Fold:
Amino acid sequence: MTKTSPAGGKSGHQARASIGARRNPASQAAILDAAEAILREEGLAGFSIEAVARRARAGKPTIYRWWPSRAALILEVYQRFKQAVGFPDTGALRTDLIAFLSNNLVGFWQSGMCGTVFRSVIAEAQTTPEAAAALAAYESARRRDATLMIERAKARGEVTAQTNSLLVVDLLVAFAWHRLLNGRLAETPADIEAVADLLIAGMQKPPASA
Amino acid sequence: MTKTSPAGGKSGHQARASIGARRNPASQAAILDAAEAILREEGLAGFSIEAVARRARAGKPTIYRWWPSRAALILEVYQRFKQAVGFPDTGALRTDLIAFLSNNLVGFWQSGMCGTVFRSVIAEAQTTPEAAAALAAYESARRRDATLMIERAKARGEVTAQTNSLLVVDLLVAFAWHRLLNGRLAETPADIEAVADLLIAGMQKPPASA
Amino acid sequence: MTKTSPAGGKSGHQARASIGARRNPASQAAILDAAEAILREEGLAGFSIEAVARRARAGKPTIYRWWPSRAALILEVYQRFKQAVGFPDTGALRTDLIAFLSNNLVGFWQSGMCGTVFRSVIAEAQTTPEAAAALAAYESARRRDATLMIERAKARGEVTAQTNSLLVVDLLVAFAWHRLLNGRLAETPADIEAVADLLIAGMQKPPASA
Amino acid sequence: MTKTSPAGGKSGHQARASIGARRNPASQAAILDAAEAILREEGLAGFSIEAVARRARAGKPTIYRWWPSRAALILEVYQRFKQAVGFPDTGALRTDLIAFLSNNLVGFWQSGMCGTVFRSVIAEAQTTPEAAAALAAYESARRRDATLMIERAKARGEVTAQTNSLLVVDLLVAFAWHRLLNGRLAETPADIEAVADLLIAGMQKPPASA
DNA sequence: AGCTAACCGAGACGGTACGTCTAGTCTTGCG
DNA sequence: CGCAAGACTAGACGTACCGTCTCGGTTAGCT
Structure:
């Protein structure tokens, strides 16, 4: 739990040492660690500011000072381990899409309870407008980035230039969300290739109406 | 012990008359009405058994007697006005899919705050295993029914017989869920035709691997 | 989960200011005042933690934090105004006993509904073991103190040295309790002298068996 | 629990047979038995109309029809097994008083949890005016009857004729009540002779004021 | 070097809601 | 009409968290 605390207080367990009138990174880390652990172990139920404070051995005001709401804390937990996964660029759309679904979405969620945390984020966003806004902003940026895969395929001539790449990304992401939220992640890897093939086939034919 | 507690029901407002030792439909209706109203007006936040009881002028035990949990009550509220929407059968896959997305999913959610209620159902399912199970069962049945649209198109030769109709329905539903949960329902009708066309195009070409 | 719960304390009436992470004497006083008022006005019926909290404008957990049970709260209410009555020492046993019955017991209970409160304490002790233990400890100490009156009389030679002073005090206290619990306090002052005389006469003769 | 029930209903356990439109003695007995058993086993706490109905397999309205309150039911339970103990008449006051305390009061309460039941009666009387009235009437009659012991002693010349026999009985009963309510019944038999001797000695000397 | 300002752990506070229990009323259907 | 049954409104029970507040202690940086 990242307690430094050489100068241990009188409180039985060793406490974090004060670093004076500045935000204490050790405290922040301890709080995020505790929040992540609770989310992983008990899910969104059982996640309360009170419980996080208890586990992190932090005061509640310390949490409220830095995260205005439960939602903000949950989101930061998610983003902390989300950052490092880049988008695939294999040179072919089919393998790009398969890798995207497998590594960035489904597979990522299946590793280490990350899916549980993300389910919590989504659930929280249905309740709390600010969580909804933060999630929307985050997702919007991710989707825009992901269109690069489609655009590269267009440039290579793999799919028709009329393809609405944002919509295709939407479909991919929606598919993964749906499986996550329905608790059907386990059966999903078997469907990934079929989804990629179906969408690629759809993108190869120019829209009839155009 | 030794509580006086007058109670008795003659408390100013006219109370529901007792009908003896049987479930009182008037009470159940009042409770569902109150639950629905709160969900519509205030969303999942602000929805509490306490609040429902207050608004319905019902006792809390009456609610717990018939609905084992918050989730069960929310689900029944949703199912009460969900029942009547049948699946389209227009004779052509394209119009079927468009009608399905428009009427059964997106348009339905946009009417009368039904979307808010369904968002609550989904959020609750992320937290409460039993809500998750109930929702999964419900959705599974709905999806199976919806595959009929695809199967009819197969029979008409509109799409290749290798089409995995369950997967296509999954994609359609996932698309709608995703928009709902992201608060992007308003911009969705404009995309419905494009989604239908993309998927139909995908279904017309037999899988390359086959 | 997902409770909004505005709370906040700025609720119209001025609230007690927080004094930090220490027991707030103002809250404790308000709670005891409210408890006493309810006991006086409505008796043990009508006394509930809920009602006390409401009247004291305090939260229920604040009460439970400091008083583990209804009984503990009632007892403290009683002890709060019980403390100041000392035992008489008039120089003669007869006047001591009369003053003891009149001032420490019967007369005290008749003033300001204290009798109602003490009846509540006794009734609660019949139900709750811990209230019984607390009351027993309290009464035991009081009786021991009261034997001083008898012992002084022994030293003065007013009564025989074989007198079991604890038993005599028991009889005095029992007489007063009995009248209190039977609602016969009003007729009791007229009997006090007779009781004193009877017991003093009994104490003057050494036990025949000895 | 005194269920007769030859004609068992369909309710799993055998039910009492209806005897038509008349008060059913079997039901009354079952209710009183259940009430007594609960009082003995769990004391006044744990005694509720609900619990009695459950244990007696009776409907709550049946109880409310015949006993207007919890207090009435408790009192009847007590009186049911109280009836048979007569007052002693040994020919000497000392043995009369000792027998009275031993058999009618302390010893009776110590047998078969009767004391627990009577404590409940007294506690209930502190709360419920009607229970207080019923108990007062009952006790008043018993005390009047008990004065016979003193009056016979007066007639035999054992005690002075000025003795206020009602007051002496009061003291005896009060002593016993006090020990009962303080949970000190076990140590009381050892004190009974001393109490009798003390009071007899007191009664032998005419009041100084006369 | 002393003072001030901010952060920290802690935990009490007024509250809301939880899910359970009982009170006392009511009505049905059987006998 | 009496009875068993059990649903009903009402509300108290004791617990968990909420979000706010103040405390006492600590350290850093300014004066």
Chain A has two domains: 3-66, 80-204. Residues 1-12 of chain A have pLDDT under 50 and may be disordered. Chain A touches chain B through 47 residues (CB under 8 Å). Chain A is about 65% helix and 0% strand.
